[in-house]
Amino acid sequence: MTGSKSCKKVISMRDTLVETVYHVLPMHSNPYGTLHGGMALNWILTNATMSAMRASRRPTVVARLDHTFFINPVKVGQNATLYSWTDYVGRSSLEATVVMESEDLASGKRRLTTLSYVVLVSVDDNLRPLPLNICIRPKNDLERRLYEQALLRRERREKEIANRREMVNEIEAPPSLDEDYHIVSYRYAYPEDAVFHNAFFAGKLMYYMDELAGILGTRYSKGAVVTASVDATNFYAPIKIGDAIEMHASLSYVGRSSMEVTIKVVARDEIKGIKRHTTTSYFTLVAVNELGRPRKVPPFEPKNDIQRELFQKALRRKRIRESMLKTLKDLEKSFDVIKELHKF
Ligand SMILES: CC(C)(COP(=O)(O)OP(=O)(O)OC[C@H]1O[C@@H](n2cnc3c(N)ncnc32)[C@H](O)[C@@H]1OP(=O)(O)O)[C@@H](O)C(=O)NCCC(=O)NCCS
Question: How many A from CA of 233 to the centre of ligand 1?
């Protein structure tokens, strides 16, 4: 269970459990009155970081957020509760599972909002990986099942992240369907943005990424949009405090009511003249009417080779999402996080 590394400390998943309740206020919402997708992503990564630090007792940075689907909204006035735990510890990396659900305080009804997996890496003062010598030892059937599933996810990710060091140099702007639907935004990384060692916190970055995706989706659809999902997001290089953050949003697909926006982030050390690709991710936005129901967006017919290629690639991603979403919705029918947590 614990692999061949040395285990100075053995912990159980339960030791790393973090539960956070937020009462969703207008300051947490999108213009449509439900929890802002970027705020939700920030909360997910904050909870994951707390669980990982309960396990590691060391600073950690976010290396990856797996595909994340928002299957139910949280309205202003409802509670959003996040539960997270560390279910795997590797050499220097850890995986945290985060479950988020809404609670309607009037009826007591709870609904699953999202289930995410986050990989974090323990780092030294120079933000380089630091081995952990900690092992998770599952202590009951539930923990054993979760541990085995986490091991499978780790194996599946290996291929996807094999080129992660080369990705740091991929700094060119992402292609867009139309130059009117490509936005570039810059901001500074300030000391208030770092949790440890001058490294910009990934949760805050995802807030900004989601915000920019929302601006572009609103521009194209000419109305309110909500974030339906974010594809797997790898963080290849840190953003250091003092860096300029270059963020691109490009429209990469238009469906009936949904749009895919590619967000690419490049960290720029303007003093040394160094640019590093931090991350690229695909946000799926759905245009909604005043009742929060999907509405049609202006159709987009690809006319040239670049547009056709972008559509084809996006459709492949859409199909992958559809099968993952089906699995999550099937799970939602029988899933009761509080009952599950009692088994820890
Ligand atoms: C995370 C980071 C330190 C890893 O660096 P690296 O050169 O890949 O280091 P290593 O090859 O030693 O990998 C370290 C561990 O991280 C894991 N890892 C690295 N990138 C990963 C990714 N994208 N997804 C999943 N796991 C990843 C490796 O599998 C390895 O796991 P193990 O130690 O348990 O075997 C580096 O990618 C980085 O600095 N990323 C930015 C982190 C950050 O600042 N996030 C916030 C951005 S705003």
Answer: 12
Choose the residue to mutate in 45, 66, 93, 124 for probing ligand 1, maximizing ligand atoms within 8 Å of C-beta.
93
Q: Using N-to-C axis directions, what is the helix angle for 202-221 and 37-56, rounded to 10°?
A: 160
Asked if domains 9-160 and 167-326 share a fold, the reply is yes
Which atom of ligand 1 is least distant from the CA of 89? Answer: 34
Q: Measured between alpha carbons, how far is 263 from 182 in angstroms, rounded to an integer?
A: 10
Rounded-to-integer distance, Cα 99 and Cα 196, Å: 25
Q: What global pTM score does this model have? A: 0.95
Amino acid identity, residue 187? R
Superfamily in which the 9-160 domain is placed by CATH: Hotdog Thioesterase (3.10.129.10)
Is the CB of residue 234 below 6 angstroms from any atom belonging to ligand 1? yes
Residue 256 DSSP SS3:
coil
Q: Which of 70, 125, 57 is nearest to 286 (CA)?
A: 70
> Which two three-digit tokens encode residue 332?
């939602």
The CATH class of 167-326 is alpha beta
Categorise residue 316: left if φ over 0, alpha if ψ from -120 to 50, beta otherwise. alpha
Question: What pLDDT, in 10s, does the model give residues 235-269?
Answer: 999 999 999 999 999 999 999 999 999 999 999 99
Position 130: which residue type? L
Query: What are the tens digits of pLDDT across the range 200-227?
Result: 999 999 999 999 999 999 999 999 999 9
